[in-house]
Design goal:
102 residues; 24% strand; Spore Coat Polysaccharide Biosynthesis Protein SpsA, Chain A; four-stranded parallel β-sheet; single chain; 4 strands
């Protein structure tokens, strides 16, 4: 199974690292080929610095805040796999639900 996980983030410096870790764990436990895409929708709180060391991660940084829809669109267009799962950057969606979504 090849999946792309698309996550728009805006001022989520505190959530990005734990969210990435949880997504990665779920994908590896289930044997998925995966990519994680964070789209930074113009954050001003250090989100870019927080995600700089995360791997694997495709990081898209928008020059200003365009809104969740535009960020989601950018992430979906950047996805390379046929199955795309979208999640919120505030950890509202539980990565443990990824297998059920598939």
């Amino acid at each position: 199974m090849k999946i792309s996980i698309v996550v728009p983030v805006y001022n989520e410096v505190e959530n990005t690292v734990p969210l990435h870790k949880e997504i990665k764990e779920v994908c590896e436990e289930n044997g998925y080929d995966y990519e994680i895409i964070f789209i930074d929708d113009g954050s001003t709180d250090g989100t870019a610095e927080a995600v700089a060391k995360l791997y694997p991660l495709k990081y898209i940084q928008l020059r200003k805040n365009f809104g969740q829809t535009a960020a989601m669109d950018a992430g979906i267009k950047a996805a390379q796999y046929g199955y795309i799962i979208t999640m919120d950057g505030d950890m509202q969606n539980d990565p443990a639900d990824i297998p059920r979504l598939i």
